[in-house]
Amino acid sequence: MACGRVIGVTAAILEAHRLGVAEGPHECPWTLDYQREASRVFERLPAWYESKVAALFGRCAETMNSCSIPARLAQDWVIVTESMVTARRAILERLDSADPDLRSRTSSLNESIEELETPPFMLRFDALAELTSRAGAMRLEQAAIAVRQYMEAPSPEFLDDREHELLRRLANGEAIADLAAEMGYSQRSIYRALASLWEKLGVPGRKEGIHKASLEGLLDTATPRRALPKLQQSSTRY
User: Fold this and answer.
1) Global pTM?
2) Whole-angstrom Cα distance, residue 42 to residue 109?
3) How confident is the model at residue 44 (pLDDT cuts 50, 70, 90)?
C-alpha cells in the first residue's frame, strides 16, 4: 500500500507536468527538505488521516530495513526507504507544531490503516508538481515500482548455499560433469540435485532456471538492507 501511494503521487505529478505545470527545483523528492515542503501541501487533510499515513510509512520502512535484497535493487531500495522515513518525519513534525498531543495519540492509530485506501478529498498535485523536477518524480516512481514488484512477486522455495553455488556456476557456463567432480556429486546425484533445484524454482530445466534466477536476483550476492548506503543525507531514525 505504501509503495502504491508513492507511485500514485508521482504519476499525478508527472501528469501535472505533462499538462503544463512548471517543474520544481527538487531533483530528489525523497529527502527530508523536500518532504517538509511537500507536507505543507497536505495540511488541509484531517490530522487522523495524516497520522495514519505516517504510521503506514513507518511500518513500511521498518519492514524494508529488516531483511535482504538482491544487489540489483540496492539503489531503488535506498530511495524508497529514504522517502518513507523522511515523509513520516515531516508529517509528524508538522502535526506536532499544530497539536503537541498528536504524536502521543499516533500509536493508537497504527493498527488501523484501512481508511487510507481512499483519500478524503482531492489533493493538490499541481502544487506538488511545482516542487518536483520531472526527472526526480520519474526516478522515485521507478524505484517504488521496482520495490513493489519485488515484494509482491512469489518467492521461490528456499535454496540452500549448495544450491545457490550450483546455480551460479551453471549460469557461468560450467559443464555439469566438471561441477559434479568439483562439488563431490556422483553422476547420478548431480542430476537428482538439478531436478530438485528446477522443481524448487518451478521451471522445466537449466535454461529457464538460469533465466528465472537472473530475473529474481538469485545470482546476485544478497545485500543486507540495513547496510545499504545513504543517498544525499542520512535518514533520521523514527
Assistant:
1) 0.65
2) 19
3) confident
Written as one string, the DSSP assignment of 70-107 is -GGGHHHHHHHHHHHHHHHHHHHHHHHHH-TTHHHHHG
In this structure, the dihedral spanned by the alpha carbons of residues 60, 65, 69 and 73, taken in order and rounded to 10 degrees, is: 70
Find cell 507536507 and name the residue. 39
Which residues, other chains included, contact 206 with Cβ-Cβ below 8 Å and sequence gap of 6+?
170, 194, 198
Helix (H, G, I), strand (E, B) or coil at 222: coil
Q: Which stretches within 130-175 are classed as H helix?
A: 134-152, 161-171
Q: What is the DSSP code string of 108-127? A: GGTT--GGGGS-SS---HHH
Separation of alpha carbons 103 and 236, rounded Å: 16
Q: Chain centroid to CA 208: how far?
A: 26
For 166-223, the pLDDT digits (tens) are: 988 999 999 999 999 999 999 889 999 999 888 888 788 888 888 888 877 777 654 4
CA distance 53 to 88: 8
Q: Are 53 and 91 in contact (CB under 8 A)?
A: yes
Mean pLDDT for the stretch of residues 46-74: 86
Grid cell 512469489 in the structure block, residue: 154
Residue 21's pLDDT is what? 96
Distance, C-alpha 184 to centroid of its chain: 39
Query: Given CA atoms 191, 184, 215, 5 in this order, what sign does their dihedral have?
Result: positive
- Per residue in 130-146, pLDDT (tens digit) is 999 999 999 999 999 99
